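Late entry, guanosine-5'-diphosphate complex.
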Amino acid sequence: MPVQVSVPELADELKVVPGQVEAVLQDFGVASEHGVLDIDDDALEMLRQAITEAAGAKQIRLLPGRTPREIATAIGVADNDVLKALMTKLKVMATLTTTLENDVSEKLAKQFGYDVLWGEAAPAPAAVEEPVSPSKGVIRPPVVTILGHVDHGKTSLLDFIRKTNVVDKEHGGITQHIGAYQVELKGGTITFLDTPGHAAFTAMRARGAAVTDIAILVIAADDGIMPQTIEAISHVKSADVPIIVAINKCDRPEANPDRVMQQLTEHELIPEAYGGQVITANVSAMTGDGIDHLLEMILLQAEVLELKAEPKGELAGVVIEAQLDKGRGPVATVLIQNGTLRRGDIIVLGDSTGKVRAMTDHQGVQIKEALPAMPVEVLGLDRVPKPGDKLEQMQTEKAGRAIAKQRLHVQQVAANVGPVRKVSLRDIANLGKPTEITSLRLIVKSDVQGSVEAVKGVLDKLNQDEVDVKILHSGVGSITENDILLAGASGAICVGFNVKPVPKAKSEAERQHVEIRTYKIIYELVEDIEAAMKGLLKPKFEDQYIGTVEIRAVYKLTKAGVVAGCHVTDGKVIRGAICKVTRGDETVHKGTIESLRNVKQDAKEMVAGQDCGVRFVDWADFKQGDVIEAFERVQVG
Ligand code: GDP
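Prediction complete; structure with ligand written out below:
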């Protein structure tokens, strides 16, 4: 049974402060946008328990750089008590709105018996993406993803590498597509993820699973850098993953690898041949020329990265793909990141759990254990996990079931109240002191390349001492689902000039709480950003159409002045509405509706089919037959 409960009610009931309720909600990845939760009974009970437990530990969750007033609110004590403790006990002189050093905030909270759990101001990708590989341990194979423009040869390259380097181990060994495969070379092993493209890459990243160590950017030598190549570059750069460029289709007569290298420099990827750091390899996925060299380069890059894992350490992994198999039940391909997965291990993958009944490698060979960077297909789970879900080991099946069940509940709670809100321009404005903000990340889409360049130019000129404005990706065309994925994974805002989001992008943005701002004039964006940086962002309004009214008579009244006798033909009209009056094809007036009268009564609103008297602010020059379109001013940003 779904119930509604507010954060203060819950705090009151459990005798804790609202900050503690919020802290637990944050832990669960649940936001209470307006302080109200809409959840089912079971989930509420679970929340109650978690809050009570957390209250015993007396912890508050704070964002860095808080003021005494914010700390007082979080703990639930009077502002003055906090200020008094600050000045008398800690000898720190401050006002209620002074930004405190984090260690001072901790000491201050301690005065009231609370420990501080530090949260993050924005979903910084670094925190989500922390690789599992520890600095100690043994060298493990690199995990590689192939990206690039459609038809440039990603699939052909993956197929060629697989065909020529994966030998059947046993007679029963069938090469099968399980979402990833490994090649064993003289110089080492490489793990390839089999789903090429940046959508999959960023979708995993958005789920907190940074599995790719090296990205191979495939560019066809006859075609050069294309829009999706640029998108891929942006996605990989924002994930901070090293790029190796495979210049493909070099067998073609019209191939021009030099031109590709030249183009790369325009995207801040300077090839080694030009004195830069980016490794390039000329290849042909058709003839196989250059592919050995490419593989060597991957191993070389991996060596530089010193990728390590501990086979004897704690088990960690990520689901690459999963499905329900008719005969075998839920089947998941898991990439092991640390530790060793063994048959019989009890595991949890997101909200699914089970004992590993069987494991096969990418050749369909049954194996007993899987080491770091190995992709394996796992059987024995109770439900189908999702790509990006993390693998954890459990001691008992009971514990596995309890965790999986709890996660399912949390998902239900999250589904009811929506995910944690991502960064918005307004958040940045509301943060107050600009010193609290480190960077504003943008994705800029536009109808012409010129305006993208113009935005870059203007942003460069802004004073970026306080806020680092970064354009993660820019391009020509509508705002797409991929843009939203990138924004979601990197805590960025999507900006459109004379372009709109495609419907799928819009719904994805709502789901992920990514802010989209569209503009027709570049300087309006720049103004907004400047204002946000100064903490002065003004609300953005848009006039939205609400209805149409026809003037059917003009009355000259002694007391009330000139009144238009009207009939509402569509939608509605409201007192104070913005209006545009047309006579034939000509607009004769733009202004505001001062009052509406229904017979003899003042009215706030009249709807289609009703007659009413209308007066305008400072205008009475209307005629019978004029048409009034009414608009409502709505805040959109
Ligand atoms: P993807 O969309 O990036 O996965 O591209 P595909 O691998 O599907 O390749 C697109 C087309 O280019 C196919 O018709 C391939 O046969 C062809 N192709 C791929 N690599 C090469 C190459 O190195 N040389 C030539 N001549 N054709 C290639």
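The radius of gyration is 30 Å. Will revisit in the morning.
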